[in-house]
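Narrative of activities, Objective 1.

The group set out to show that a structural description can be obtained from nothing but a protein's sequence at a throughput compatible with the screening campaign. Below is one input-output pair from the validation batch, recorded exactly as produced.
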Amino acid sequence: MLQSMTGFGKAARVLDGETITVELSAVNHRFLDCAIHLPPPWLSLEADVKAAVRDRITRGRLNIWIGRRREGSFDRPIRFNAAVARQYVEAAHELGAMLGAPGTLSLDVLAQLDGVFYPEDRDEDQERLKAVLLDALNEALDALNDRRTKEGEALASDVRLRVDAMLEALAAIEARLPELEQVHIERLRARMAELNVQAQLAEERMAIELALLAEKGDVTEESVRLKTHLAHALDLVASDGPVGRELNFLIQEIQRETNTLGSKVRDTEVSREVIRIKSELEKFREQAQNIE
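Output recorded for this entry:
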């Protein structure tokens, strides 16, 4: 099933009176790029988190926020860091001396400064913590991928509409080509009549001109390749797994064949349909940027 690269997922678990929350948000990116935010005591689990994400996600920029919150009474002892408090006091004195004003800190202010008081970390069973955290992470990834799949369905539906519109335009071009040959013949006949060219010479000249036109303006190969590329695009959209990169390469090939076709056939109606193909292709390109 086609998936987009944008979405959001969240899950939580309770371990020893603490709530562990995992939040994921994903946006477009050419490759997989993970920004992981963990509480400092859990930084050793970053590699495990990244490995779990890589098993489930192949492309996109993911912001992964993992937090902890104590439920109920706070059972960890509060400690006082005298060294940090002393540094704050000394810094306040230095600032006061520089400004020529008293540099003092009240106890109320000092107590609120970062690092003066801190909860004592308790020894945690890292393996047990990892199991609970990864369980929450996988639930959040399930929610994220559900959202990405729903958006992917909408993208696939829109891409099919774009491809159908391009095939319609290509069919209109193919229907116009025989008419162009007849128009060219009529113009040649009129030109020969104006120049009063003998009938036999006129027919010979027309045969040469038509042969040159057929060689120069033949777009059979471009038309066949375009239809092949568009059919391939539909197959990719209907397939499982990440196809975004392949679709981007395919769009480049469709663009190249469309440009060649447009340069070979000089006709207002054909040009109009070529512009229609390019317009739909640009919309296709915009949607493909969000496909995993």
